[in-house]
């Protein structure tokens, strides 16, 4: 006899969560393939690289496709629509809890980052909560496209008492796979942000401390000139 009561299982919710996970995996793999194609094509600029990745979901029209056959879906069941809205509101609390959970992988980090933490003011405390040690675990393979620049921008909001944590995060990121590639495709604004971040960190570190030695080494890795 099964130990689960099928009557108590929300198969609709389970199905939606499964579909979301599958779509997220497909998006990650699709964009990752696009990154390799862009590097292989030796694109001329960061913007061109970014456009290739962002357009990776677009499929070319097949020979037999007809644009005129595309139809708009007209909602006909207002009761069903209202029910969907109520279901959405009831899942808000669970969504918030999901955003507070520590990510178990780089993919999950990217999902939470894009979905729940859309501004630097939201992203900075999120990074502080995760910490450098956990970031090292989830980014041991690689860091997702575009995240490095966004993380650098968020870290620029650091407080003096967080300087040690920020240096630890920068050191962790410098050791992830394809770090050099991520640095290569930083935009000019993101590079300026990186310079500003290191300059502010230097003002918080004592000249005779071990942290200064680490910071100087990191400046070399991040391409920041004294």
Automatic annotation (TrEMBL):
One of its GO terms (biological process) is epithelial cilium movement involved in extracellular fluid movement. Residues 9-77 form the Dynein attachment factor N-terminal domain. Keywords: Cell projection, Cilium, Cilium biogenesis/degradation, Cytoplasm, Flagellum. Its main location: other. It is found in: Cell projection, Cilium, Flagellum; Cytoplasm. InterPro entries: CC103, Dynein_attach_N, RPAP3-like_C. Residues 103-191 form the RNA-polymerase II-associated protein 3-like C-terminal domain. It holds the Pfam family RPAP3_C. GO terms for cellular component: extracellular region; motile cilium; outer dynein arm. Belongs to the DNAAF19/PR46b family. Homodimer. Dynein-attachment factor required for cilia motility. This is Coiled-coil domain-containing protein 103. It comes from Lottia gigantea (Giant owl limpet).
